[in-house]
Amino acid sequence: MTSSTATVPLPAPRAREVGRRSPAFGLAAPATLFVLLALLGPLALMFRYSLNRFVPGQMMVEALTLANYQKFFADSFYQDVLFTTLWVSAVSTLLCLLAGFPVAYFLVRQASAKWKGRLLLLIILPLLMGNAVRTAAWMVILGDKGLFNAAIGTLGLASVKLMYTPLAVIIGLVSVMLPFMIVTLQSVLEGIDENLEAAAASLGAGHLTILKRVVLPLALPGLLAGTMLCFILSMNAYATPVLIGGPSFHMMAPTVYQQVAKAMNWPFGAALAFVLMAVTLVLTTIANVLVQRRYRRWSE
Amino acid sequence: MTKPFETLLGTPSRRAVLAGVGAGALALAAPRIARAVEGTLVVSNWGGDWNERTIKFVEAPLVESQGIKIVRDLGMEPERKAKLIAEKRLKRGSIDVIHINEGDSVELFGQEVISNIDFAKVPNYADVVPALKSKPFFVPWLYSGVSIIYNKDKVPNPPKSYEELWDKKWAGKLGLTNQLYFNYIMMAGLIKGGNVTNTEQGKERLIQLKELTQPRIYAAHQQLGAGLVNGEVDIAVNYKARGLQWANDGAPLAIQYPSEGAIAVMFGASLPTRAPSPDLSYIYFNAMLDRKAMAGLAGASFYAPANGKAELSPELKAKVDFTAAEAAALKFPDYQHVAKNTAEWLEWWNKNIAR
Amino acid sequence: MGQIAINRIYAALSALVLAFVVLPLVAIVWVSFFANKILSFPPSGYTLSWYARAWEQDAFRDGFITSVETALCAVVISLALGVPASLALVRYRFPGRDAIQTLLLAPMIVPGIVGGAALFMAFIELEVLFDVEIAGTMPGLLVAHGLIALPWTVRLVTASLAGTNRSFEEAAASLGAGPLTVFFRVTLPLIKPALVAAALFSFVISFIDLEKSIFLVGPGRTTLQIALVSYLEWNLDSTVAAVAAVQILIIGALLLISDRYARLARAF
Q1: Model pLDDT for residues B66-123, shown as the tens digit of each residue
Q2: Residues 6+ positions from A183 with CB-CB distance below 8 Å
Q3: Rounded to an integer, what distance in angstroms lies between the CA atom of residue A17 and that of residue A274?
Q4: Which residues are paired to B263 by β-bridges?
Q5: Would you state the torsion angle of the CA atoms of residues B111, B113, B119, B121, taken in this order, to the nearest 10 degrees?
Q6: Which of A263, B161, B197, C248 sits CB 3.0–4.6 Å from B259 for a disulfide?
Q7: A167 touches chain C (CB under 8 A)
Q8: How remote is the C-alpha of C86 from its chain's centroid?
């Protein structure tokens, strides 16, 4: 059996079910109501807060102003924070894709069912450490006098500064997101008939050609789902940039936290949050539309 | 250990707590069951060692032993503070005692979420070092000073003052922590005969410090400690108590009290305005300041005890406490000034120092 | 290039990537035996004392229990809400279907810290308006954890339902089985692996959550992640590594057991 963690396009229900809507509403209503009440309601409230005014020493003063958004667009510092968040997320996501694909392909095409299950568990298990502890591990590995530098030191190489650099953050983010990418990709590859590849190979196509012409086009929706998932996860990353990036490395989610909890500036924190969510939403939507269009062209 | 059933049901409702207090009052009134106080006290505190020490020296021997059940709300200070402020609009209060630092107590008092304390109900308060008794809404407990902590093997001639940090020879050797950003601004304002509110000049000088020494800025105190231990930095500006803790963990560290006078940092507790059972809070405050408890805490935490009569051994006193001259020179921040500016300072710090 | 060479390249690349994924885990288990008082490298010696110390910390035991309880409740909420909704999304066409699908996946897009803070403020507003206590209570925390778990269930179960063969359900229905019987006797067994995977992911997402919970935990209910972060504020030592090692051992064992029961690999 194959299934996919990707948000697959929903199949059209069969004709006789169209119009049978009463059970559907009943089934979908609890979850829908729950998300409306527990997510959209609070977010609407947060949006309202983003229009309030901040007065030091008071949490916020009721107002109807765009000043907090203007502050973001007038201050290059916060735009830089957004820009850093974007490029770090893009690079991390790309690396996840590049590193995740071979593993997924290996699991689906080469590993036995038993080993596939075990390896998948092994991939998911490190997630359970939690971000705080994982960071402690990276500190020991990436520190100036850490495991990595000790290892390259025995090879006679000079030590490099890794901790508190963007590279360290990217390493940390990739290690958190790779499991999600691998799981998504392997479920998509699972759905591609191996015979197609064999057929292409029998026609003399090299492996890279098969990947490019057969596997990738078919896997595109899944690749997209995995990519978007990783991109969203890293746009929203909090613990990794704070603890591995250090105080001089600013990304959006930690900045939101700082404004809300440390500066007690809820209105500006809320505004930053909405800028972040809007950017993520717009980018993922564009990617979705572009890829879907491409996919349709390919599948025609 | 919390019983799962209670964990699922949440803390006892306010009514149950009140009933408990009522029962406690009755019990007090009944002469035969002397001293048995009942009820639940909700304590908001830091987690980790801070909480463990609080339990070991104060809560278990002096509060829970009286029959008071303590429920703990553990977390980092910013979110505990933010929660208390946000809950201001509720009719109920959920916290009876909040452990905070002095600076945050000023901010919380400004927001009217903590109240003045009737120190007549806290007998041990009489023994508190007079210089620390400056806030009617704050129980001083443990304090320290922002000092110069250095690796004595690598830095034979440490800076004797904050001012001497402004020197090219410390380039790449100095470590700071992000959490103390406003202490550093004050520190920079303090040098050359300045004072703790000389913060505008402090900011300019801090930029010079950054240019001169390119300090490494760590995300947390303990990361700075690790940096000192593994040799990433040789000098750190942090609380004396943290320096003593790291030295105790085996690092070759020594501590220099800055000649300008160290910026004081004080930890303690406050009484939330809507505390469900304030009577129990007072019992708790008094227990915090108990002489023996304070001595134990000083030994375990390396913070100086606020109770001047805490029974410290001479060696311990020499180690954790300040000499009379050092204590007199401590610089207490003007937290009104801090509360007014801290949001702006944080932004300034992010844009100019931590980047 | 021959197929064998290609296979070897994939195997080698996979080994490399797997090593990278597992590296922090291996490192943390190793570090948990370091004798260093402050976390650093290289080890000055080896000791088991961090495990003893971790065991002594009530906050970790309480936190572990709280986190497991919360995560189990999150699993229940996310399955109870997510499975029927997935069924509706895949099996029926109705106005707003796409919108509802997007909505149910939306909790993923919202940064945890934002969602948590927003939920906390909403609880405060609700209590002001209706006098119901939610902020700082277990139900409040569960709402948050159910919310972050739900999209995973919807993702996995819609995908699985879309891939199942409808003819079994139709056959059962034509033999006179009612819709509930069809669901419990036919559909559920068909998507069992996806259900197990959804439960697993819901559990993991809830268990490791830090940001969403920061504002929502209340007195007596500190989650393990918050207890760990709080601990690190005062001591950066191997105690947290010991906690992580034990926790992974426990959960890893549970995973292996459930794998035997439900063949997790088929679910993803």
Answers
A1: 999 999 999 888 889 988 988 888 888 889 999 999 999 999 999 899 999 999 999 9
A2: A5, A120, A123, A124, C268
A3: 39
A4: B146, B331
A5: 170
A6: B161
A7: no
A8: 19
Partner-chain contact C40 B229, CB within 8 Å? yes
Per DSSP bridges, beta strands B235-239 and B139-151 are antiparallel
A144 to chain B: closest CA residue: B232
DSSP state of C185: I
Distance CA B303, CA C169 (A): 70
Whether pLDDT at B18 is above 80: no
| Mean pLDDT computed over C98-105 | 91
Locate tokens 């009569």: which residue? B309
**Angle at which helices C224-234 and B221-229 cross, to 10°:** 50
Q: Which DSSP string do the residues of A186-245 spell out, in sequence order? A: HHHHHTS-HHHHHHHHHTT--HHHHIIIIIHHHHHHHHHHHHHHHHHHHHT--HHIIIII
Residue A244's closest chain B neighbor by CA? B219
- What's CA A105's distance to the chain center, in Å? 20
Largest Cα–Cα distance of chain B, in whole Å? 72
Burial track B78-89 (b if 16+ CB lie within 10 A, e otherwise) = bbbbbbbbbbbe
Chains that touch A (3 or more CB pairs under 8 A): B, C
Residue written as tokens 């080994």? C15
Which A positions 202-261 lie with beta carbon below 8 A of chain C? 206-207, 229, 232, 235-236, 238-239, 252-253, 256-257, 260-261
The rounded distance, in Å, linking the Cα atoms of A86 and A98 is: 18
Q: Between residues C60 and A9, which one has the greater pLDDT?
A: C60
Residues 168-187 of C with CB under 8 A from A: 179
Q: Which residues, at least 6 apart from A93, have a Cβ–Cβ distance to it below 8 Å?
A: A177, A227, A230, A231, A234
Q: Kindly give, in sequence order, each residue whose CB lies less than 8 Å from that of residue C76, ignoring residues fewer than 6 positions away.
A: none
Res A61: pLDDT: 85
Taking one residue from B and the other from C, the number of pairs with CB-CB distance under 8 angstroms is 141
Using the beta-carbon criterion (under 8 Å), do B107 and A57 form an inter-chain contact? yes
Looking at residue A10, its pLDDT comes to 55
Q: Do the Cβ atoms of C120 and B86 come within 8 Å?
A: yes
State the best of C6, C7, C17 to mutate against chain A, taking most chain A CBs within 10 Å.
Answer: C17
Query: Does residue B235 surpass a pLDDT of 50?
Result: yes
What is the rounded CA–CA span in Å between residue A55 and residue C67?
37
User: What's the whole-model pTM score?
Assistant: 0.88
Listed residue (A231, A280, A225, A235) closest to A104, CA to CA: A225
**Mutation target among B84, B90, B99, B267 for the C interface, most CBs of C within 10 A:** B90
Query: Cβ atoms within 10 A of the Cβ of A174, count?
Result: 25
Contact A144, A161 (CB under 8 A): yes
pLDDT one digit per residue (tens) for chain A, 300 residues? 333 334 445 555 554 454 444 688 889 999 999 999 999 999 999 999 999 998 877 777 888 999 999 999 999 999 999 999 999 999 999 999 999 999 999 998 888 887 888 888 889 888 888 888 888 888 889 988 888 988 898 888 888 888 889 999 999 999 999 998 998 888 888 878 888 888 888 888 888 888 888 888 888 888 888 899 999 999 999 988 988 898 999 999 999 999 988 888 999 999 999 999 999 999 998 988 888 787 777 665
What is the structure's pLDDT at C261?
A: 67
User: How far is residue A47's CA from residue B310's CA, in Å, rounded to a whole number?
Assistant: 52
Name the H helices within chain B. 4-9, 14-29, 48-54, 77-86, 102-110, 181-190, 199-213, 221-229, 240-248, 278-288, 291-301, 314-320, 324-329, 335-352
Q: Cα(B137)–Cα(B155) distance, rounded to whole angstroms?
A: 42
Of C66, C226, C234, the CB nearest to B75: C226
Query: Using CA atoms, how far apart are residues B1 and C58, in angstroms rounded to an integer?
Result: 6
Res C114: pLDDT: 93
